[in-house]
Amino acid sequence: MNVLPDEYNFLIPLKSQSLNRFGINQDGGYILDEEILKLSNFLVSFGMANEFSFEEQFLDYNKKNKLIIFDYSVGHIQYQAEILKNIRRIIKLKRNLSDLIICLKNYYNFIKFINRNNVNFYSKKVANKINTNRDIKIKEIFEDVMKKNNKNITLKIDIEGSEYDIMDQILDYENIIDQIVIEYHDTHKRKKEFFENVKMIQKYFYINHLHANNYQQYNSDGFPINIEVSFSNNKYLDNSLKKNYIYPLDSIDFPNNPKLKDLKFQFKI
User: Fold this and answer.
1) What's the Cα-to-Cα distance from 109 to each of 24, 52, 87, 194, 246, rounded to whole Å?
2) Exposure winner among 37, 243, 250, 263, fewest CB in 10 A?
3) What is the DSSP string of 202-267?
């Protein structure tokens, strides 16, 4: 068990008794405060890739729920390219038919999901400035969300390092966001940015959960390289919440990579 240096104590979560897991029991599942989630009817998801069980469970939690997704790394072109690649490899006897069937099923599930009435999917990159016609800025996204009178928003961010660049813009809309789940990447290279980013968020939100992504290991000081952080808006902060020092948590935390052990760490008590 890695005991973290004192400089990480600002990350100690305030644990709610109503924390629950949404999504599969591996990479793609995240922790939310279910009592707060009951108030939410809209999910903004930045980064979905090929695994959208978190988004599906949000929709199924309340039939009135809606969501909007932005992810330029996944779409019809990517799925079709993968199918064609499998066909070519089958012809060359480098793949078997079962691989192609899996590809086709994945594509079918993707099409079925993004065509649900309460889902809007955009193959666009969330960015702090526009460089191509595939980029979209935070302001454009949230101004559109507000026009439709969506409040009590849940926000998920898993965009492979770009999370550091957009948080200041997201916080312009903190009054309509109830919960945020973020995966922070490369804390071994971006420790200063990570600290600054989280402390900026903590002006408006408190941390209620942490989980290490075990596809990477630890920094030299014992902190996970990639870390999932769950935040709740400070308007829900109350005195019943207690600090929790040891992670992962039984029953709601599972290894992102099920073939490896979960990463353990604790804060000084």
Assistant:
1) 15, 10, 19, 35, 37
2) 250
3) TTTEEEEEEEE-TTS-B-TTS-BSSEEEEEEEGGG--TT-EE--EESPTTT---SSTTSPPP-EE-
Helix (H, G, I), strand (E, B) or coil at 149: coil
In eight-state DSSP terms, residue 94 is: S
- Two tokens at 39? 């108030």
pLDDT at residue 145, as a whole number: 86
User: What stretches in the chain show pLDDT beneath 50?
Assistant: none
Q: What's the Cα-to-Cα distance from 153 to each of 21, 41, 156, 164, 190, rounded to whole Å?
A: 18, 7, 10, 20, 28
Angle between helix axes 97-114 and 76-91 (nearest 10 degrees) is: 170
The predicted model scores a pTM of 0.92
Dist. CA 187–CA 6, nearest whole Å? 16
Contact (CB, 8 A) for 223 and 247: no
pLDDT in the model for residue 73? 85
Q: How many CA atoms lie within 13 A of 95 on its CB side?
A: 17
Q: Give 9's Cβ-side CA count (13 Å radius).
A: 5
From first CA to last CA, the distance across the chain in angstroms is: 13
Q: Report the distance separating Cα 99 and Cα 49, nearest Å.
A: 19
Secondary structure class of 128 (helix, strand, coil): coil
Two tokens, residue 173: 């809309």
Q: 264 to each of 2, 60, 210, 213, 254, how far by Cα in Å?
A: 7, 31, 11, 10, 11
Quick one: pLDDT at residue 122?
92
Domains of the chain: 2-74+123-266 (3.40.50), 75-119 (no CATH)
pLDDT tens digits, residue range 18-30?
999 999 999 999 9
